[in-house]
TrEMBL record:
One Pfam family linked to the record: ThiS
Cited InterPro entries: Beta-grasp_dom_sf, MoaD_arc-typ, Mopterin_synth/thiamin_S_b, SAMP1_3, Sulfur_Carrier/Prot_Modifier, ThiS/MoaD-like
Protein name: MoaD/ThiS family protein
Lineage top rank: taxon: Archaea
CDD domains the UniProt entry points to: Ubl_SAMP1_like
PANTHER family listed in its UniProt record: SULFUR CARRIER PROTEIN CYSO (PTHR38031:SF1), SULFUR CARRIER PROTEIN SLR0821-RELATED (PTHR38031)
Length: 92
């Protein structure tokens, strides 16, 4: 199945583009996709998943909803889903 990925700030720089479509297995989860991204892009290695969970302060949205409020890395994906990945943001 195909899903859309959106990257922001430093993650966009690491991937080299703002959006891309990715083909994933029918039973893929958010964690599967994040692991594949870490393996594919040097700039994302170790930046997305830590100890089997999404790294602290990282925002990963599925269709605009934070996956932390769903099933985290085990959140299932459906064809056409949009997964957005935001790096930690500091400021005040």
């Amino acid at each position: 199945m195909e899903i859309d990925l959106r990257f922001f700030a430093t993650f966009r720089e690491a991937v080299g583009q703002k959006e891309r479509t990715r083909t994933v297995d029918d039973d893929a989860t958010v964690g599967d996709v994040l692991g594949e991204l870490e393996a594919e892009y040097d700039g994302l290695a170790g930046q997305l998943v830590e100890g089997g969970t999404i790294r602290p302060q990282l925002s990963v949205l599925k269709n605009g909803r934070n996956v932390v409020h769903m099933e985290g890395v085990d959140t299932s994906l459906e064809p056409g889903d949009v997964v957005s990945v935001f790096p930690p943001v500091a400021g005040g």
